[in-house]
Amino acid sequence: MGNFPTTVKHCLSYEELIQDYPWLARWLQEEKRALTHEYPEYVKIVEVGPRDGLQNEKEMVPTGVKIQLIDMLSETGLPVIEATSFVSSKWVPQMADHTEVLQAIHRSSHVRYPVLTPNMHGFQDAVAAGATEVAVFGSASETFSRKNINCSIDESILRFEEVICTAKQRQIPVRGYVSCALGCPYEGPIESTKVAEVVKRLYELGCYEVSLGDTIGVGTPGSMAKMLHSVMKEVPSSALAVHCHDTYGQALANILTALQMGICTVDSSVAGLGGCPYAQGASGNVSTEDVLYMLHGMGIKTGVDLSKVIEAGDFICKALNRKTNSKVAQARGDYSVHCRMKKINT
Amino acid sequence: MGNIPTTVKHCLSYEQLIQDYPWLGSRLQDEKEMVPTRVKIQLINMLSETGLPVIEATSFVSSKWVPQMADHTEVLQAIHRSSHARYPVLTPNMHGFQDAVAAGATEVAVFGSASETFSRKNINCSIDDSILRFEEVICTAKQQQIPVRGYVSCALGCPYEGPIEPTKVAEVVKRLYELGCYEVSLGDTIGVGTPGSMAKMLHYVMKEVPSSALAVHCHDTYGQALANILTALQMGICAVDSSVAGLGGCPYAQGASGNVSTEDVLYMLHGMGIKTGVDLSKVIEAGDFICKALNRKTNSKVAQARSKSS
């Protein structure tokens, strides 16, 4: 019956009450609406542009450009920057320079630099290169798991278990990702209970946080709420993050929904780097700039300087010779003209 | 000079303007490429088949200021009007209202502002003077039993004044509502709003006007439109303005987007189990049509994703 006072629910039947006092229905509805949502005071932004973003760009990005991008991002206040991926260069040639990147970046003491490690081989290479945090990447869809990493979900979890155990012994934190949390390009909708099951397994194995990925951006506030409801029965919200793709323009609305449900970690990509590999020309990662604009507009702290992120986005877009996917960056890009127009008009 | 804010037209010579703002030259050129009347008619007819309950057909503003709408009478008379849809037209004053009624309009809309500066720059008069003009239109419309919708621009920010006090927005909305507008649409004209400012503004407006008489008109210039619309829905608003293919750029930021795409709004609402009565695939078709006709890309991410994935 929704958010109605307890007394009303217990004393009389609701239907009889509304029949006798029609104004009460409106009042009860207005009470419900007047309650503003609770939002976290602080949201942690996990910047995935240098890895998830650049990995999906068609052009090979020169190593020097990647290093400069990460160094610029390190100056923005972002607390976490996913630096690179220790996946075999046979599968992901764009990340072949992982060791060089990790060793050359200037690591800020205020920032963490997780790297992707799909298996023990990648993990060992990462540690040898100086990694102090790693991430493993599972799926809620059996078909996606087989097509993307050539094994079933169960087999992938076995691989991760080895990585996570070894990482624990070395006191290296491990972050988990679960893709297809809101839909799969092959299977379509994914049962939220299945998502919850995979998330729970990664969490219980020892991932300090699990990021829920809307891999093809098909989610809406409806499916996001439903999925989170199932997942949060198994794993506390403090150990969860959302990784929304903006392929259908729903990312910010989905992130807002997640925040309303208690999630306070959001993955995003500077300039919205990283297209959706399943729909050519469609957008992928949500832009860090657009997320920050929304959060700051809601009075939510992030510790991140939006204008510095815009600068980093400008840099990488020029280097890649492409337009930004961030609407904030596009609008601000003409801000200087906007200011002048303002001056003329006054 | 096309749809350029009045101040720009009056303050500087055209040549000096283009010298200082080269992008403005190409923008003005684009504006000169008028949409053929038959294309407008076909677009509206296609939209009439989608289930959309309200389609704003045209504007009876002087063609001196908005030449793109000069064919208003021809458009209104030629469209096939579905019995399931309403076709309001903009009428800024009595002259426009009379022309609209003569052309067969059965619903009109008036356009005010919560920002004094924007009102003066955009329609050459103060908020108070504009309300006086609308009062005349609304009274006459009432006598002829023609419903009037109100718009309040700059509800979440003004390109000249910056942030606008929500109490000021509430005051203007209340005046339009009490004059007789059956609904007032709250416009985030430059798309600067966020769920924070949307909630605050609505909180004040809804103290004066019931949510059933309000609508939100969000621009997506900063990518915030869907999040803002979601916030409005959560506060009880159930009318949302949107534009097929996200037509209509933001005149205050070159290259920036403007209206939120109807396709993207529908995708969100349907995904939440909210009924609209609208067929998304037919809206996508109408969007494809108009984008081909205008030789431009759609601003709708849903339309982009759907066309690529097929």
TrEMBL record, chain A:
Its EC number is 4.1.3.4. GO terms for biological process: ketone body biosynthetic process; L-leucine catabolic process. GO terms for molecular function: hydroxymethylglutaryl-CoA lyase activity; metal ion binding. InterPro entries: Aldolase_TIM, HMG_CoA_lyase_AS, HMGL, PYR_CT. The keyword Metal-binding applies. Residues 43-310 form the Pyruvate carboxyltransferase domain. Keywords: Lyase, Metal-binding. It is an enzyme of class 4 (lyase). Pathway: Metabolic intermediate metabolism; (S)-3-hydroxy-3-methylglutaryl-CoA degradation; acetoacetate from (S)-3-hydroxy-3-methylglutaryl-CoA: step 1/1. It comes from the Eukaryota. This is hydroxymethylglutaryl-CoA lyase. The keyword Iron-sulfur does not apply. Belongs to the HMG-CoA lyase family. It comes from Salmo salar (Atlantic salmon). It catalyses: (3S)-3-hydroxy-3-methylglutaryl-CoA = acetoacetate + acetyl-CoA.
UniProtKB/TrEMBL annotation, chain B:
Keywords: Lyase, Metal-binding. GO terms for molecular function: hydroxymethylglutaryl-CoA lyase activity; metal ion binding. It catalyses: (3S)-3-hydroxy-3-methylglutaryl-CoA = acetoacetate + acetyl-CoA. Pathway: Metabolic intermediate metabolism; (S)-3-hydroxy-3-methylglutaryl-CoA degradation; acetoacetate from (S)-3-hydroxy-3-methylglutaryl-CoA: step 1/1. PROSITE patterns: HMG_COA_LYASE (PS01062), PYR_CT (PS50991). Residues 17-284 form the Pyruvate carboxyltransferase domain. It is an enzyme of class 4 (lyase). Its EC number is 4.1.3.4. GO terms for biological process: ketone body biosynthetic process; L-leucine catabolic process. InterPro entries: Aldolase_TIM, HMG_CoA_lyase_AS, HMGL, PYR_CT. Belongs to the HMG-CoA lyase family. This is hydroxymethylglutaryl-CoA lyase. It comes from Salvelinus namaycush (Lake trout).
